[in-house]
């Protein structure tokens, strides 16, 4: 449901622009508001699951998501839509924070990578169906893209109550209380930085920096920190989540950008745009479970993420050349498929590595921390695309794109906007390159851990013999 919603909304943005008189910047917040709520709340949602039982909290997340989806469909202005997207993000944060820990509790260590990979098939089905279904529904009425979540959420609650075992609802009394003050400061800081990237106002950058500093101060003084200090000292975990967050910044922005390229530049219908975007999530759906299976077989599975990160970054750079014309070629389809396939090699191994480095008692908050950085990356990618793609445009065209109707650009304006989107793709590729060193460091930490495991299993006599 989460993947379906994300892809459907992206395809519908130009039509939301027309009906609600919203420009590029506000449309970015239709996506960014959702992911900002997830980033700010997912850690607290993980604690909710630990304190009150992951099964029940997981299903409450579906209920919040379904109700918020209905309210999004009823929105009469873009500001209402953004507000309800925040609520929707709160529901999504609960599902994300408790879903993978439920899987880890259900399988043995040798099966967890496979289980996470198979779980991602559900995400892939929604991701593949999202662009095409979004095109069909948007052609009728874009509000349907939100209403479609309501019956899915209701069905998920009914099935979950019947099928998720009660023993998975156990509580961890050591999880600690919620820390809403830190969550609020973090959310405000991220929001200010995103506004800076969107509006290019240096004052917002300064306020965002102060917000980050305030968050660090609040965290250092509280007895109940939002970020687990044990995990922050765990180098393997830190490298995994930072590398994954950076790579998702490079990855997520591609789908957002391509929706505007196909509809505002190439002039495609929503359905045609959905079909052209579909190769990326389709390839992601194939590679995610494959990468999950391979994770269980490799001694140092981070090699999959390193290879995937190199391919994602290189393919995004090549995509910038393929988009230099308003008429997309078959090479665009091929590159989108390669980016999606390589993204799966990054996703499953990295999220599995992050949680595997954590002790079982901290895996709920470890998962929440990972998704915090992932969604910060998602929000940053949207803000980055908006900022870079309009930075070099003439003032009049930039103002039209930021505040006007994106479905009615002239041919000359579309050509200029296309060049701005090309610049944004290059920026995403550069971000991807920056994530590769962190994933290489994860590879090194896995090698150290494997050596320690071998020594412990060998026993003191064999270890001494090897040392001698």
Tally of individual domains: 1
Structural class: mainly alpha
Name the CATH superfamily assignment.
Answer: MFS general substrate transporter like domains
Q: Radius of gyration in whole Å, from Cα?
A: 22 Å
Beta-strand proportion: under 5%
Q: What gap, in angstroms, lies between the N and C termini?
A: 57 Å
Query: What is the number of strand segments?
Result: 0
Element order, helices and strands?
HHHHHHHHHHHHHHHHHH
Number of separate helices: 18
Give helix % range: over 70%
Q: What average pLDDT do the residues reach?
A: 80
* Biggest sheet architecture: none
Which word captures the global form? globular
The CATH class turns out to be Mainly Alpha
CATH fold call: Growth Hormone, Chain: A
Could you explain the architecture of this structure?
The chain is an all-alpha fold. The chain starts with a helix and ends with a helix. The chain is globular, with a radius of gyration of 22 Å. The chain has a single domain, classed as MFS general substrate transporter like domains (Growth Hormone, Chain: A, Up-down Bundle), CATH 1.20.1250.20. Helices cover 83% and strands 0% of the residues. The chain contains 18 helices and no strands. Helix 14 packs antiparallel against helix 15, helix 14 packs antiparallel against helix 18 and helix 16 packs antiparallel against helix 18.
